[in-house]
Amino acid sequence: MKPLPLVVTIALGAAVATTAAVLLMGAQRHRPSLPAELTPPRPVPTGGDFALASAAGPFRLADHRGRIVVLAFGYTACPDVCPTSLATMAAALKALPPAVADAIDPVFVSVDPERDTLDRLDGYVRYFHPRLAGVTGTPAEVAEVAKRYEVEYARVMASDGRGYSIDHSAEFHVIDRGGRPAARLAYDVPPTALADALARVAASASAEPAAPTPTPTPTPAPAPQAAPTPVAASALMIHDAYVRAVPPGSTVSAAFMMIHNPTATLRAVVAATSPAARTVELHTHVDDGGVMRMRQVERIDVPAHGMATLAPGGYHIMLIDLVAPLAEGTTAPVELVFDDGARLRVDAPVRAVTPPAGGHAHHMP
Measuring CA to CA, which residue among 237, 175, 164 is closest to residue 202? Predict the structure, then answer.
């Protein structure tokens, strides 16, 4: 038989390579898919054991072998992201079967050891769940733990130089029974997504399958809201205003609301005041690749024939240096100042922190 011409040989080789590539791609396409509400998987960090301090004594991750640990990083002076994270943790544990929930240790790591004393940290976390551990350490110890779990954080001084906030990664880290990172999820996932991740990790390390996550009890309908409060000068109206209740020791909170502008002219909130706090500022949050950066803004636009939404994770009115603790069931007066000189005062009810109803997740492969 005559040898095949060189061109035919090259063509056959290319065909074989193409077929192999197609088969490989097909195999990749048929890998088990993620649940619909989750984003493509984000690699978990290297992680590793660490030792920090808590009000109950030393906290060593190695002492929690055989249990599931879920970590969140933040600081107690955070008015928005950290309370949301801890409320989500608590709701996720409540959604799990007791046998699974009892095998999980929730932990909040403070990246602000300068202000977060152990007593303050302990009171703060127990406001959300009685088993939540608040831990921190020296700046060097905290930095080492953050590095292992790929947590970024940085102090940002206030414009007047009298205080600071902290930009920080806002994620949950699920550690399996062997002390290995098993999943990483964004802070704004619904509690059911975090509960599902915890149940999966628990089941993968157990001889007996974990009981299925129960269908969460429907959230009760919110209490009827007062009629929108109008501003006579500009016809603006406020809907569903509220202020977050604060944990013990916390000196900051945030006000949220929807501002409706039925006029044909763009308006803007340029300032706010409240007798509940010594300093009141307009703020927003920016999600920078998982790092939440809170920044003061000069104005919040309310578009013509439109609405501005102040909500957790976005625009909010920050109440700094509270005059007294804000207890659920009370009210906090908040007055908005608009660019046309109009002022609008609303008595905002103080509500408990609630976890988000939606969001996204970075889940384990």
Answer: 175
